Amino acid sequence: QVQLVESGGGSVQAGGSLSVSCAAAQVTSSLYCMAWFRQGSGKEREGVATISRDGSTSYSESVKGRFTISRDNAKNTLNLQMNSLKPEDTALYYCAATTYPGACSVSRPPRLYGSWGQGTQVTVSS
């Protein structure tokens, strides 16, 4: 397992932008798939965006066109840029990673990720 530590997030009004980052205590180029999940109050954890080792990305329909996932292998970080934020984007955002192959997409269930960060809060007010 890999130690992951999120940072960033915060509060913003609807239409604004925020970014969250995840620092990995391991060379991220060795991680097969990295992802951002979120969990709103009273909701299940859902996949938001993923990025594979070769840089391929996938997004949930609810964030496609507004969020951008990226990884900086030189700094061992995973990033999520969030634009045009909506109140329904309010959630605790988690970074996840796995070294095991398989589909690297937002449909990959949380149980197939072996490493998780502690989460960082994103709050969007209307």
What is the terminal separation in angstroms?
Answer: 38 Å
Number of H- or I-type helical stretches: 0
User: Helix-strand pattern, N to C?
Assistant: EEEEEEEEEEE
Radius of gyration: 13 Å
Percent helix range: under 10%
Helix/strand-derived category reads mainly beta
Runs in which pLDDT lies below 50 for 5 or more consecutive residues are none
Mean of all residue-level pLDDT scores: 94
Globular, elongated, flat, extended or rod-shaped: what is the shape? globular
* Major sheet summary line: 7 strands, mixed
Tell me the fraction of residues in β-strands, as a range: over 45%
Number of extended strands: 11
Q: How would you describe what is shown here?
A:
The strands form two sheets. Strands 2, 4, 5, 6, 9, 10 and 11 form a seven-stranded mixed sheet that branches. The protein is mostly beta strands. The protein has no helices and eleven strands. It has strands spanning 4-8, 10-13, 18-24, 33-39, 46-52, 57-59, 67-72, 77-82, 91-98, 115-116, 120-125.
Please tag this protein with its features.
126 residues, seven-stranded mixed beta sheet
Please render the helix and strand layout as text.
Elements: E1 4-8, E2 10-13, E3 18-24, E4 33-39, E5 46-52, E6 57-59, E7 67-72, E8 77-82, E9 91-98, E10 115-116, E11 120-125
Parallel strand pairs: 2-11
Antiparallel strand pairs: 1-3, 3-8, 4-5, 4-9, 5-6, 7-8, 9-10, 9-11
